[in-house]
Amino acid sequence: MDTHQKGNSRRTFFQQLILGSAGLYLFPYLQSCDNGKYPDMIKGSGNPPFNVWEEMIYALENSPDHYLARRDNLVSAGDINAMRDFVVNDIGLLPSDKGYFRSIAAGLLYGPDAALRCGLATPREKAEILSKMLQEAGVEARVVLETVDMSEEEVKSILFNPGKAAFEPAAKDSDLKRWKKELGSNPENGTVVVMESPVEKATIFADGLLEKLDDKYKQVETESKFYFSNSGVPTVLYMEEGVEKYAHLFDPSVPLGSLHPSNKDNYTKDAKPLRSIEEEVSVTIKSTNAFDGTKEIELIKGSWKASDLVGNQVKVSFLNNMTFEDQAVKSVSDISTFTPCLALQAIHKDRKYMEERSFLGEPITLEGEKVFSEFGLQSKGDEQQGDIRDVVSLEIKAFPKTYPKVRLEIFPKDNEGKIVEGIKAGNFTIRDNNKLVTGLLRQNIVAPRIMLLYDTSLSMPNQYRDEGIVAFLEETQTAIRETYPHARIKLQETGSRIYTAHLKAAQTESDLILYATDGHNSDSFNPDDKPIFESGPPTLYLYTRDTDKYIQAIADNTGGMIIPAEDQQATILQIRETINSLEFPPYVFNYNSVEIDKDHLVEVSAKKNVLSASANFRFASKSSNAVGKRLTGIYMDIKIGNRSPIRRVLAGWDNYLDSYADPTPEMANAVHELLLGGVVIAFEREGASESIRLSEYLKTLMSNKAWFEAVQAGDNAMALEKLSQGTFDYPAILLNTMQPIKNNISKESITYPSGYRVGIIKFKPAYFSEASEVTFDYLPTSEYKSLTPSGRNAFIETTRKTAQLALLEEEIFDKTAMSELKNSKLVLNQDVSREEEYSSRVLAESYRYFREKVFRGGVLKLFDASAVIKSFWRIDPKTGELYGVLPDGTGGGGNSHYEQLQHLQAVVDEYEKVVARMNLGMGIAGVGGLAVGIVATYSLTLVRLYAFASEAIILMDASNLDDQIAQALQELACNVYKEILYATLGPVGEGMNGIENLIGSIGGDFSFVSC
Questions:
Q1: Strands (DSSP E) along 290-328, which ranges?
Q2: Could you tell me the residue ranges of all domains in the chain?
Q3: Is 608 exposed, middle or buried (CB count within 10 Å of its CB: 0-12, 13-18, 19+)?
Q4: DSSP state, 425?
Q5: How does strand 24-26 pair with strand 92-93?
Q6: How many other CB atoms are found less than 10 A from the CB of residue 787?
Q7: What CATH code would you report for 449-581?
Q8: What confidence tens digit (pLDDT) does each residue in 369-398 have?
Q9: How far is CA 952 from the centre of its chain?
Q10: DSSP alpha helices (H): ranges in 898-934?
Q11: According to the model, what pLDDT value does residue 21 have?
Q12: Is the CB of residue 752 less than 8 Å from the CB of residue 110?
């Protein structure tokens, strides 16, 4: 076997060893074989696999391409010459600006820290890196600028130099064999695939797309003008034994200690301080609901410095508000509230750093109600809280609301038959068909919630429009509060679709609906909706005309009452009289019940089951088609610096494509599934080197060591304690998708991202749908650019190089733009946008999509000429950067798996089963463990939430709780192990029985836990 083959084998073996059954898709890199010069291997601590992973991290951090660790090791060694050689020869050179080196003295692209992740730096960044290394090594040093005399050809020969550090983990062949044995490695578990000839294939593919563009789009006549500011070349001045010496970095041929030989006068000047390239990055999650249409509600927002995010991830989660103990014994259907979370995961930072840069929102319901703001744990002013001991009888009523929600009203009375208010939620126990459920208390005093709907059409009289309706609300509320001082009235505008508006209101938590209308109606009655109207709150139609001929038929269908409303004062008086005749509940709980086709018996008990009451309900046969006020859309806006925000529709209603459509149950269900899933956002400048990516992945696995080994030892209490402290997780797919492009520096061109590479993984488990989904999305924020020695054809080079990412997606995902469009005839949007075949008459329902997504704006887009396939290729008109875009707007790909969350099964088992089988990598859904950065804040949220909860299952079923928790921990450990074992990363070459395969091949019949 020749040296290259053996090196390739070692690389693949090592990657698979790390990655479990890794179908890892990687671009080929420089690699070396076992040269016999590696340092002695450290001995890892603990049990397999963690002790082996610890040793692997050591080997990776001693690889030449692990720039971060090498920097620190060289500083510790203090060898000035070695430090200089590292910066000059191993870190690739980037231009300082689009004019090559016009701003060479001060030009920054990524900043010194980010430059060390990818091994690419501008001349000034290189000088800053070396200067800081010397200072940390105890050597006085600073950046200076010198004047050199170099020709354009000399400068370009230095810039267009492809040499970079090799991937060469410091592990001997004997180490690999020992690791393989300790891990119980089975080569049949999988291979790492190295993509063959990605540069050549990407070039062929890109040229096929470019053929469809006229030369005017490809900027073939454009030439990048060459500049070299020769009087400002960054150099490092350092002191050695009291003598000033220089480390020239731009020209590798200059020996250490000297200035450039063309600097005849040895002239230097101090460099100006670095200018800040810091930018702010914000992530905002918003929602819409079925009732308020286009009105967006902010759920959570986080802001960071860009430097906080590069090389790190933000986890967008909707935490299920359960402790691990809860998740061990409660079912998926018990998850009824969600806490929005933006957690920074920074593997190289401490807990405090991550806590300061993580954000937790307020818990919400499936309707988007903010629990702490909108639910009311109330008392009666200065009076004492209610005492459960005063209660001698219970009455309850149960009403099915928007599936799967149930509204439970409780009326506790004392020995005089009076309502006892102010009792805490935990005094009540709720069972639905004998299943213990946790109800969330909305109120514990009599406090009627009234919704005032008003028709906004121009046919309504002025006294019920604009300022008139607001004044009417205030007067009505004042009158009602004379009887019910805690009453609340909410104003809600509607159109002229009376049945639709009333149906939505009937599914809300209102105790009474007031509907101001002139009776002009533009929709029709659906008899299937009658049970929903009947189970909703009483409704008073405030009829603004002098005859009831329009409204009477509507009231007959819905069961509403009619009150003449021409005279507002008389109307308010009649409303007050009607309200005084109604009974309003002091206690209202909500919980979820998923058995839609069954009769339900609800039982409520108190005082240790001494008191009890029951009620029956059944969801209407068509209730799964109702949306009520459910959340129907979730959106994420990402803004970087002064660039325009980029929006992604994470689930449900699309304000561009669905603006004329009614919210549907499918939209609400998609949102529900997203809340049960999650999103991970990864940030880089250019992708980190292979050894850095693999070592960071292993470090996230190592965060499971403490609790995992406690499970192995049978110490469940310790396992829970360690698990509660938080863990890291790194979806293995990021190892593929966030890798740097191949041949980014060659003699023919240099291609680099001038922006930020941002990748988004979205996981949506199947709860209502058949298949769980994972999608990956490249945001168009990377801003890849190219330069060539001639200054021409930069557009074409950028298209060719970024086409590698399209090839990578095609290898990894089932559904991509490439797979969707491979048999399509492609046309350019700019050329055909006015043709009849793409008019609204021809495209019909698809017209809005193509108008908004394909034809709008100046971006070049190649799409299916038949307009049947909605995926397209997006090419930046200025740079040539290429991305494939799927119909849902994601710039990546997706996979579906026929794994579902079962409604009535335990949370831990169900989530981990789905996540493990989907090969996501380490609990993307956030079940079991928590992100380190939000542990402390989230614990306070849970404490507040528990005050709203009926008696917890965890307290009521303690007899076998320890066994259930032990089983759940074992299941979690088993499934985390399976995630590691079966993490699928995608192809990149032939699998070899070498170094990288080891991480990927642990297991077979071998297991570190009982599975």
A1: 297-305, 313-319
A2: 3-202+223-270, 375-444+588-625, 449-581
A3: exposed
A4: G
A5: unpaired
A6: 24
A7: 3.40.50.2300
A8: 999 888 865 555 445 578 899 999 999 999
A9: 30
A10: 907-917
A11: 39
A12: no
HEC assignment per residue over 761-795: EEEECECCCCCEEEEEEECCCCCEEEECCCCECHH
Quick count: other Cβ atoms within 10 Å of Cβ 486?
Answer: 16
Least confident of 287-296, 309-318, 328-337, 534-543: 328-337
Residue 237 neighbours by CB distance under 10 Å: 21
| Domain 375-444+588-625, CATH | 2.60.40
Using omega within 30 degrees of 0 as the cis cutoff, is the peptide bond preceding 404 cis? yes
Strands ordered across the beta sheet of 268-270: 243-248, 233-240, 141-146, 268-270
Phi, psi dihedrals of residue 961, rounded to the nearest 5°:
-65, -45
DSSP 931-992: BGGGHHHHHHHHHHHHTTBSSPHHHH-GGGHHHHHHHHHHHHHHHHHHHHHH------S---
**What does the DSSP 8-state code read for residue 909?**
H
Collect all residues with Cβ–Cβ distance below 8 Å to 239 and sequence separation of at least 6: 139, 140, 141, 245
- Residue 1008 is predicted with a pLDDT of 61
Which position has the token pair 């108008």? 851
Which stretches within 271-417 are classed as H helix?
306-309, 324-329, 351-356, 371-374
Among 343, 936, 906, smallest CA distance to 679 is for: 343
Q: 771 with 898: CB under 8 angstroms?
A: yes
CA 208 to chain centre: 34
For residue 400, pLDDT over 70 is answered with: yes
Neighbours of 61 (CB within 10 A): 18
What is the Cα–Cα distance from 451 to 440, expressed in whole angstroms?
21
> Residue 467: CA atoms inside 13 Å, Cβ hemisphere, count?
0
Helices 3-19 + 50-61 axis angle, to 10: 140
How many CB atoms neighbour CB 820 within 10 A?
19
Residue 814 makes CB contacts below 8 A (sequence gap 6+) with 893, 894, 895, 896
> CA torsion 246→250→253→259, rounded to 10°?
-30
- Phi/psi for 35 (5° steps) reads -95, 5
- The residue among 713, 682, 679 whose CA lies nearest residue 696 is 682
pLDDT at 983 over 60: no
Q: What is the DSSP letter of 834?
A: T
Contact 149, 134 (CB under 8 A): no
User: How many Å apart are CA 448 and CA 583, to the nearest integer?
Assistant: 9
* Averaged pLDDT for residues 3-17: 55
**CA-to-CA distance for 986 and 736, rounded, in angstroms?**
7
| Closest alpha carbon to 119 in 80, 90, 95 | 90
CB atoms within 10 A of CB 567: 11
- In this prediction the pTM is 0.90
Q: Are strands 587-592 and 757-764 parallel, antiparallel or unpaired?
A: unpaired
How far apart (Å, rounded) are the C-alpha atoms in residues 652 and 658?
9
Give whole-number Cα distances, 414 to 216, 248, 379, 398, 608, in Å. Answer: 85, 89, 17, 21, 17
Among 779, 676, 1011, smallest CA distance to 283 is for 779
State both tokens at 352. 């405090």
The larger pLDDT score, comparing residue 94 to residue 891, is at 94
Inter-residue contact 80 to 238 (CB < 8 Å): yes
Higher per-residue pLDDT: 120 or 595: 120
Report the alpha-carbon distance of residue 981 to residue 551 in Å, rounded: 65
Segment 706-763, tens digit of pLDDT: 988 888 888 888 988 888 888 888 887 888 889 999 999 999 999 999 999 999 999 8
614 within 8 A of 601, measured Cβ to Cβ? yes
Q: What is the dihedral of CA 421, 426, 432, 436, to 10 degrees?
A: -170
Cβ atoms of 301 and 285 within 8 Å: the answer is yes
Phi, psi of 145, rounded to the nearest 5 degrees: -115, 135
Place of tokens 């080197």: 689
690-702 vs 67-77: helix crossing angle, rounded to 10: 90
